[in-house]
Design a protein that fits this description.
Oligomer: single chain
Helix content: 10-25%
Radius of gyration: 42 Å
Distance between the termini: 99 Å
Number of helices: 7
């Protein structure tokens, strides 16, 4: 045993020493005898173990490289330069190749090859992709760079003998080379990889309730997002649930400036922050609505006109104010002037207290005597046409496109007028109605509601009604007195109906299911005698003016904006 171990150690030392000197494997010839055979067996086993360990380590290293490549892509791969690299390996390592072709670009970056054609085309292409630069150095065109002198810059050459290039071309080639070496990820390249939604994605979006606002889907340049102050991500409008309406009572809009006279008119401005309030106290008030302080912005006293109705022009430039008088007022909000107009030439109406303004802010329709509808220009305040019903007119309503006007009156019929031809296009009977007292059309023009003196409100499909269908979609009999006002909210999911002749006689209808909300009004929230109401432009606020001179304010939680 001592002989075997000593011989093995001596021969192994010889083999290592010889291997280091010659750089090749040494086969030690064993001497004859039993000890020599044992030494050969030990060496063979040791060599076998070393080879197996080396093979395992090489396999593990190869597997690790493949895993890194699948995870990190080309960022961790060595750059290969074709055959020239293999030929250069035989030469001195310190000498850099004079010229080589870089073929390491990826197929997704093939567009960058065109960037190397010329410096001017390259710059124009980059500007299209990346947007106009914020600052440009004028000296770039004046300076020159010798890319053949520095070994690290020789890879930027397009031809082998190229040496001096301009500064702008140098910058363009550096950017192109950087894009080749760092291709980035797909999500950072919106121009090349746009997200396409299929049916499943759209369903998931509806469930999540978040979408990109209109106008942002086709954005190419990220800088365009900074040109607007609208929300990039907003809640998708979801359906309002029936039966229970989520709302809360806020401080009265006129809490600090209440009136003892009934409130006959309330309306929100298009900016949803300004609320107009008018009543028999002959004072027109404007409040800035925030749900807490509701500060008074302006107050105008009209000495000879108890206000029966006041309304903004839809463009927000004027306010039309009327009372039980032969004349009316227009308040110019831009110039802060009050102008008086009326009576109209050739007419003897004793009152212009009821009117409607067209959504395009061009026409004001007044209720005249003996079924006459007086159409006046909103700009000149002069009468431009007259429409005639077969009975006294009691209510009017424009469609949202201002092309049609609906009217009803003492004969229980609904008249549909073509505003372009100034003629009646259809007359239909309002089922169960003796006297029509209120009309309103939904913002999408698909529905209209007709209230009557009996307290019944009929809901119709407008197109079907014009085509001859008399049967309403639904009749609401929740009120027992004359219907004085009806109003759809912004998305026509809520219809408000009310009467000023009975306490708390106001109801809110869930239009999609055609059912009345059970929790409105609450027992502990007295509306008293409601005279008028309005929804804010985006549905977040609702206000009710009553006979006690108070303007009640409510927050509808389903709508996120006022």
């Amino acid at each position: 045993m001592e002989l075997i171990s000593s011989n093995a150690s001596v021969n192994e030392l010889k083999r290592k020493k010889c291997g280091k000197k010659k750089g090749i494997d040494v086969v030690v010839e064993a001497e004859k005898g039993n000890g020599d055979s044992g030494m050969e067996i030990v060496l063979n086993e040791a060599n076998g173990r070393r080879k197996r360990k080396q093979e395992i380590s090489e396999a593990e290293e190869q597997e690790m490289k493949q895993l890194e490549q699948s995870l990190f892509g080309s960022l961790h791969n060595p750059i290969k330069f074709g055959k020239h690299d293999a030929e250069a390996s035989d030469e001195s390592d310190t000498e850099c190749p004079l010229f080589f072709n870089d073929i390491s670009a990826y197929s997704t970056l093939s567009a960058h090859k065109e960037d190397l054609d010329s410096s001017e085309e390259n710059i124009m292409e980059l500007e299209k992709k990346q947007g106009k630069p914020v600052w440009v150095d004028d000296e770039e065109e004046q300076i020159t760079v010798d890319i053949g002198k520095v070994s690290k810059l020789r890879k930027l050459r397009q031809v082998e003998n190229e040496t001096v290039i301009s500064g702008s071309a140098y910058i363009a080639r550096l950017r192109t080379q950087h894009a080749k070496m760092n291709p980035g990820t797909e999500w950072s390249q919106p121009d090349n990889y746009r997200r396409k939604y299929d049916d499943d994605d759209s369903d998931s979006d509806r469930e999540d309730g978040e979408v990109v606002n209109n106008g942002y889907q086709d954005l190419v340049d990220g800088d365009d997002i900074l040109t607007t102050n609208e929300d990039l991500v907003s809640k998708r409008s979801v359906k309002l649930l029936p039966r229970i309406l989520e709302f809360s009572k806020l401080a009265n809009a006129n809490a600090n400036y209440s009136s003892d006279a009934p409130i006959n008119s309330v309306q929100f401005h298009n900016n949803a922050e300004l609320l107009l309030v008018g009543g028999l106290d002959r004072t027109l008030k404007f409040f800035q609505i925030d749900g807490k302080k509701n500060e008074l912005v302006q107050s105008i006293f009209l000495e000879d006109c108890p206000i029966r109705k006041a309304a903004f022009l839809p463009d927000g430039s004027q306010v039309i104010v009327s009372g039980r008088r032969k004349f009316a007022y227009s308040l110019d909000l831009i110039e802060a002037k009050v102008n008086k107009f009326g009576p109209f030439i050739g007419r003897d109406e004793k009152s212009l207290e009821s009117f409607e303004v067209s959504p395009d802010s061009k026409i004001i329709a007044f209720l005249g005597n003996e079924g006459h509808i007086l159409l006046a220009s909103a700009k000149t305040k002069e009468m431009i046409s007259i429409l005639k019903m077969h009975a006294a007119v009691r209510s009017l309503a424009f469609t949202s496109d201002s092309k049609q006007l609906l009217s009803s009156g003492e004969d229980g019929r609904v008249y549909v007028w073509d505003m372009q031809k100034m003629s009646c296009m259809h007359i239909g009977i309002d089922e169960g109605c003796l006297k029509g007292t209120s009309l309103c059309v939904s913002p999408d023009r698909s529905l209209f509601a007709a209230g009557s003196s009996s307290g019944v409100v009929n809901l119709y499909n407008r197109e079907k009604f014009i085509n001859g269908t008399r049967k309403p979609l639904k009749s609401f009999k929740n009120l027992t007195e004359t219907v004085d006002f009806t109003k759809f909210n912004v998305d026509a999911q809520i219809l408000a109906i009310g009467s000023r002749r009975m306490r708390n006689s106001m109801r809110l209808v869930h239009v999609p299911t055609m059912s009345v909300f059970e929790n409105w009004p609450r027992n502990n929230h007295s509306l008293q005698y409601p005279c008028c109401m309005d929804f804010s432009p985006r549905g977040g606020f609702m206000t009710v003016g009553n006979a006690a001179g108070k303007v009640l304010l409510f927050k509808l939680h389903h709508y996120t904006k006022a």
